[in-house]
Amino acid sequence: xxxxxxxxxxxRRARSARLEGTEVxxxxxxxxxxLAEAATTPLVPADYLDHVAPLRSGTDLRAxxxxxxxxxxxxxxxxxxxxxxxxxxxxxxxIRIGIDVDGVREWRAYSLTHGPRDDGLISITVKxxxxxxxxxxxxxxxxxxxxxxxxxxxxxxxxxxxxxxxLFITAGSGVTPVIxxxxxxxxxxxxxxxxxxxxxxxxxxVVHVAPTEPESIFIDNLRELATHGAIRLVPRYDxxxxxxxxxxxxxxxxxxxxxxxYACGPGGLLDALTAHHEQAGLKxxxxxxxxxxxxxxxxxxxxxxxITVEADGATPLLDVAEAAGVLMPSGCRMxxxxxxxxxxxxxxxxxxxxxxxxxxxPISSANGGVPIQTCINAAAGACTIER
Amino acid sequence: xxxxxxxxxxxxxxLSAEDIETLGHELDAIRQEILDSRGAADAxxxxxxxxxxxxxxxxxxxxxxxxxxxxxxxxxxxGLSIAKILENMxxxxxxxxxxxxxxxxxxxxxxxxxxxxxxxxxxxxxxxNELHHTYTNVVGKDNDLGYxxxxxxxxxxxxxxxxxxxxxxxxxxxxxxYGIAAYDLELGKNLAIPKDKRSEDFKARAKQTLRKIxxxxxxxxxVHPALSIPTGSFVPTLAANxxxxxxxxxxxxxxxxxxxFPEGVETFEKASIEGExxxxxxxxxxxGSANISGSAAMHxxxxxxxxQIEHHLYPDLPSNxxxxxxxxxxxxFDKYELNYISAPLPKQVYSAxxxxxxxxxxxxxxxxxxxANAPKQLAKLYKMTTGGPKVRRAIEARSRQEARRxxxxx
Lengths: 387, 410
Prior knowledge:
heterodimer, A: alpha+beta, Elongation Factor Tu (Ef-tu), domain 3, Rossmann fold, 4 domains, 6-stranded antiparallel sheet, about 25% helix, B: mainly alpha, 2 domains, 17 helices
């Protein structure tokens, strides 16, 4: 803050006294915290407070589900009330959300589907993917009142404010970050789309790809914006138009060369688009939507403590690492004592006792990995363990 | 008790190697059933227990701020004792076993949990999970067998020191948390080493334990009593916290004694576990543990260690599921003609204490003593206590001879 007006001396004194006051308050606060910790050891005061006020300031970031409403047969918008320390977001960013599915904490990333809201709530729109443990849970089983774990918004897939001619290419649930951007630019109220001064010069085309029309999430919102003239909508349904060929883009959007492209969808489409735009010398920003999943194999490699070694599918990772000279924590070596637990950061492992597969997807890895017992798990692909 | 290998009739003699492997597979199948059905209801269970325990502890400690008033003292002390027992057993012990690691909740995980006990969780996990659970009831390997200070087996040579073991055991029961900390530190072994030769690892661990004890003691004997000063309740709160700790110690000690000490539980020789198969390991756990029968509340208060047999077979299965698998495990005991030991708490506590008293005396002494021969027996005990090793061996040999003659005559 800049303040060039000279203050009368009296006021300055008063201000410095206030500052000392806060210094005392800080010390007092610090002492009270120390006392509370001494009274609750080996736990911390938060362990008790979290049971009554899980969304308060100063604790792990969480959110409570306040509403779940269906968008299509297999997609739903989850409205969340974030904890007091939620720092806000820019449309197009995503959040990591941790939710317990069948009692197991699972972390996934979803785009926020709106700009900052007056009521302080945030929302994500989730499409249930086949065999998707978390997406199916969120769409079909999540209930208002459920507490979820959260991380601050992240991601660089946000609009460059200086650009006015835009092309959005979205495929499947890749529409969600784009919907977030559009809702921020053109808020939709009960009385229709609102024209904001900041959006009046924008010229937007949305190429929206979906398998079929009924499976197209947010299509109603896109149509409403198109009817209002806020965007030009180019829907492409695989069953009607065939799978999109990037070479056809020039026909669909003749002025593509004047536009900055924002694309979000599966990896294959993004790779093709990036190649196409690079060749044509066009600007493109992309966001891959689904995290890559690990295919479990039989045996593979183990990376631990800075080395990578071959690991067959029948030898416990603990033995493999020790044979390679890595100092590993260990205990009973039979799956009983949990003295050997380390974090699986990447890859898949197989429990030698029952064949159960544990995988570490990129999102769990970013959250510290998946703890595994190294003495009864063998490699099921290339795995990385944090020592 | 004598190790299974030295017994006249080995209770596993009727089982072939194939039987033991089949038994192992059948036990694996029970384990798999629970793994396959583990889910949201189990997660809700442990979270409810934790929440209830914390509410009970906070409420009891709040009451104790007014502990100068006897009703507040009684209710607060009772509540705090129960809260401490739940925290150590159903919550701490079981979480540190990794029973809830599958939830992937970093706050309820064996690698992060710290408990309300003198022994730091890392050291306890080593002493308990690795040594006790792997070498269950193997004489010389399992420190839980007598904690290194007691005679728990007829084959251990009797010396007069053992006469005091009922007393040591009682003192250990009252201050059990410190006893656990001491043997997790292997204090006896390490203190015998000259100070300058003790390992760095031991010194670091000892420092860690002392720090934990200091924090624990400051909480119960300084901070909470001090917070009670406004109502003049410093001393009553201190007394209440001490009482709750002793109640918790006596209770946990009793439950743990019932797990492996009652008559009928087998012990094993060191050499017998070399090259042990998974089936044989299971069999040793089956024979080396005893259950406590009782109500659901009793099981909860023992942290489901009342299902000691099931817990030793499956130490990492969620404790709330032991009750449901117990009948299936019992059926396997019956099928393979093994002895499933289960009895109410008072009976098991008596049985364990009886064994401690019996083994504090020379072999056979307690059984041979009748009101009629008491003076003669006492004289013999006096001679064995005051005489040297030679005197003891001579008397022991004579006793064995007399016992043999009596057996032949009968």
